[in-house]
Design goal:
Helix content: 40-55%
Strand order of the largest sheet: 2-3-4-1-5
Number of helices: 24
Distance between the termini: 61 Å
Strand content: 15-25%
Length: 561
């Protein structure tokens, strides 16, 4: 089997080093079809092959070294396509914004200026002395070379250089912009979003809207930033997101491609395990799509077994920050997802960053869906989608986020769990109370008292998640005359212990104290006979706990049966 070159997104490097390459060149035929948009936007999760595809497009279209580049595509699908006639026919501008993540707008503009300066000198130095250009056009390039262009001149870069290339080659350029939204994410985090949006709107408009000589434009990113913010006026742009059928198999790996990869690596016997860990995405109604970063890493490191790869390539900071601020509807839906359910909800397909922190379900779920942390369970053309967690790798990420808040304090997780398993309720209650007092943003709820008990419920499930190998951890399980919040009992039927947890959340309309609410929760366990199933199963040592929450305060009441 050919070797797998992890971390390389350079198409030429993969081909020349005879590394394993999964053919995605059919994307070119789709882009160059007669009814295809002039400018295409492809929002996809990170590490799903965006940069490699853009590199492939660059080598295919580039008029520079056209004959040499043509050999890179020998034996690939595009060689037999009608679209092959476009090989090596156009000047190409290929920019990646993935590293534009400065702490200030001024810093971003300075880094972009240096990046464009180096790019022009490396790729288009022949334009500096070309007779095809007017004096003022060469002056623009000379000022860029000297780093003397201001932000307003830089906004015109794509339009100006695209026009220069057209004059020199006699054919309009192909413009490829990879990770266009990286500087926008950074600007939101660092407080200069408005300036960055204004700059990017003008920068992209100069290249894609006002450039009459443009042959084709392709833009990639993780999210689709709302059109009124950045793509205003770009009537020639069409978005192909994970919800669209066209190009759905161009990013990520299909089941057929993974089957071939597993067969080539001698790992076909592990097909079901691999699917459980890395499969599960649905793009445009095409199900069983794989995360390529994870499956390729798995094959490259077979001796390490099935472990998380994709979720470990990012800090997931935005997800960690947004989830606790979700509104009540969102928290209820997320709670259902954590239980392994498929939930139905409306999803916003473009991001208005200012609204993310409002916690609205459409925006938060859209972020999770388009970032790869959720997927659709079935195809739908409406805004209402059936959503689920795609695979075990992502499910473990959610569990780790919950545990993160526990690990970040001085209270050790094992002390909490050990006191719980030993059925020492006073110690457990004391440790839990101290944890909440020392915790941070996850429990920094609003002061209106509107945060539901579901988020506490989800946290407690996350806390108990690692018990699942030896214990049954059941949530909202019907027992007796109702549904208890959490029931835990051993898989070892000779162990007589069991636990019942019931939660209450205080708000402004509830007059009882936390201690009184904890007692009410404990009485509910008794009056609704949540013990019934456990007693019938032979569990004779049952710890029942009522737990009442109010922001960072928690009070427990208990009874041992």
């Amino acid at each position: 089997m050919k070797h797998i070159l992890i971390g390389s997104s350079d198409f030429k490097e993969l081909i020349e080093q005879q590394a394993y390459y999964i053919d995605k060149t059919a994307m070119i035929e789709g882009l160059m079809s007669d009814n295809q948009a002039k400018v295409s936007l492809f929002p996809r999760p990170r590490r799903f092959g965006k940069t490699l595809n853009m590199s492939m497009l660059s080598y295919f279209f580039n008029i520079e070294q056209a004959e040499e580049n043509s050999t890179l595509f020998e034996g690939l699908a595009i060689e037999q396509s009608e679209a092959w006639k476009h090989q090596g026919k156009y000047p190409v501008i290929f920019l990646s914004f993935k590293d534009l993540k400065q702490a200030s707008f001024e810093g971003t503009i300075k880094k972009l200026s240096r990046m464009l300066q180096k790019y022009v000198l490396d790729e288009f130095s022949y334009l500096l002395t070309s007779d095809h250009l007017e004096d003022h056009e060469r002056d623009y390039l000379d000022q860029l070379k000297k780093g003397q262009l201001d932000r307003y001149d830089l906004e015109e870069f794509l339009g100006e250089v695209g026009n220069f290339l057209y004059k020199y080659h006699g054919v309009g350029p192909v413009i490829l912009i990879d990770e266009y939204d990286a500087p926008i994410h950074a600007s939101y985090k660092n407080g200069y979003l408005e300036e960055m949006i204004s700059f990017m709107r003008n920068f992209l408009s100069a290249g894609f809207k006002d450039n009459e000589n443009l042959t084709k434009g392709v833009i990639t990113g993780i999210l689709r930033v709302a059109k009124e913010n950045i793509f205003s006026g770009l009537n020639n742009i069409v978005t192909y997101s994970i919800l669209n059928h066209q190009f759905s198999d161009c990013f990520g790996l299909t089941q057929e491609e993974v089957d071939q990869l597993l067969m080539d690596s001698g790992s076909s016997a592990r097909r079901e395990e691999v699917a459980h860990w890395y499969n599960g995405y649905s793009f445009g109604g095409k199900s069983q799509m794989y995360n390529p970063w994870s499956i390729l890493n798995f094959v490259a490191h077979l001796q390490d077994g099935l472990i998380p790869y994709w979720v470990n390539t990012s800090s997931n900071d935005l997800i960690k920050e947004i989830l606790p601020k979700s509104d009540r509807i969102t928290q209820d839906l997320l709670f259902g997802l954590l239980e392994g359910k498929t939930v139905e909800a409306e999803v916003e397909d473009s991001m208005v960053f200012e609204e993310l922190y409002d916690g609205k379900s459409e925006m938060v779920l859209g972020l999770l869906l388009f970032s790869g942390y959720l997927t659709t369970a079935s195809y739908s053309e409406t805004r209402k989608k059936k959503l689920r967690i795609p695979n075990l790798e992502i499910k473990q990420m959610y569990q780790r986020i919950l545990k993160h808040y526990l690990d970040a304090t001085s209270i050790k997780q094992n002390l909490l769990i050990e006191s719980f398993l030993r059925q020492e309720p006073a110690t457990f209650a004391d440790l839990l109370e101290r944890f909440f007092l020392n915790s941070f943003s996850f429990f920094d709820f609003d002061h209106r008292g509107e945060s539901p008990e579901k988020i506490y419920h989800a946290f407690m499930l996350g806390l108990m998640a690692h018990l699942s190998e030896e214990y049954h951890v059941k949530s909202n399980r019907e027992s007796g005359l109702g549904r208890s919040d959490i029931i835990i009992f051993p898989k070892d039927y000779t162990n007589p212990k069991a636990w019942i947890l019931e939660f209450k959340k205080k708000n402004l309309d509830i007059k009882q104290s936390l201690a009184e609410l904890a007692d009410i929760a404990l009485k509910q366990i008794k009056t609704k006979q949540y013990y019934t199933e456990l007693i019938e199963s032979g569990h004779t040592e049952i710890l029942a706990m009522g737990v009442a929450f109010d922001g960072k305060e928690v009070v427990c009441a208990w009874d041992k049966k």
